[in-house]
Every structure is written in structure tokens, then in C-alpha cells.
Amino acid sequence: DDRKEFRRIVWDLLVCDEGHSIKNAASSRTKNLKKLRARCRVILTGTPVQNDLPELLAMLVFLMPKLFDDSQNQLVNLFEAARQKNEDIDSDEEDKEEKRVFERLVKVRQVLEPFVLRRVKESVLKDLTPKQERVVLLEPTKLQSQLYDETARLASKKLRKSKQSSERALRKVRIHMFTELRKMANHPLLLRRRYKDSNVLE
Questions:
Q1: How many CB atoms lie within 10 A of CB 43?
Q2: What is the predicted pLDDT for the residue at 153?
Q3: Which residues of the chain, if any, have pLDDT below 50?
Q4: What is the Rg, in whole angstroms, of the alpha carbon atoms belonging to the chain?
């Protein structure tokens, strides 16, 4: 199990891209990621943070569990109180109520602001240079070439055996072949048929 191996390592930096995917604190993905040990954690997300404090707090708890775990319920209650408006007040008290709601929202924002770095499109585009694309061809290592040939031979063998199979089955074999080749191109360690649990040091 890769998760077991990852939990043994104390990472210097843990970057969680597409951070909105861990907004649900009860999800298995969030729970597994929280078990990873890291000296520093960062969440990246291109999805705007909506007015849903529990989801935002789930991400903040992932970043700094010691700081936010105890204060989570208190912040949620404060946020809910800020959003609720007392309907049983007369017009003379309405201005005071709106002022109290505004003050609560300001307080919530002050608590959360140091932990959120937000970039808007208007402020970023003017600093970006024109986009340039460059294709750099790299020679594979000796091991990568060997694994490439082995993977191609195994895939050809499977395709020959699957000639009588349905088109769906053939498509599955092709997808698996290209997935294995892509893993090999990234790093040989990703090919689990070469590095299995049985020959990984405990």
C-alpha cells in the first residue's frame, strides 16, 4: 500500500493541488492526506472560495490542525451568527443589527485573512510575459529504454491474445499499455511490476 509508505516519511513540503477536493473533512481522501507528516503544507486551488465556512475550515485544518481544530466550531458559530439576521426587531433597531452583522463578518475575515493568499485575474495578467512554448527532446536512460521495450513486447503479446475479444476489451489493453509507457517515461519506479511490495525495504 503506497499510503503506508508515504506515512512513514516526514516531508519537507506537502503541496495539495486542486485543494477544493479536500473541502469535505469527512471524505477518505482528506483523512488520508491529513495522516501524512510534513513540516510545511500548502493548498493550491483555482476554485473560488464560496461563503461556506465549514469547507474553508476543512482546508485550514489540513494546513494547521493544531491551530484550527479547537477553534473550528467557534468560527462556524460566529459565521452563522453573522449571516443570520434577526427578523423580530423594529426599524429603530435594524441599523444596529446590520452593524452587528457587519462587525461579525469583519471579525471572521480578520481571523482567516492571514492564511489565504488570493490572486485575481486582473492583477496577474499584467505581470505575465507572452506565452512561449518550447519542446525539448530528452533521451531516455538505459533502464527506461529497457523497460520501454519490455512494456511494448508485453502489450503486443496481450493484443495478439485479445484479437478475438470485443473492441471494448482491446481498448482497455491499449489504454493500459499507454499508461505503463507514460509511467516509464516519468520514472521507472512507477512501474509496480518491477518494484513490488515484496522487494521494497520495510
A1: 20
A2: 86
A3: 202
A4: 26
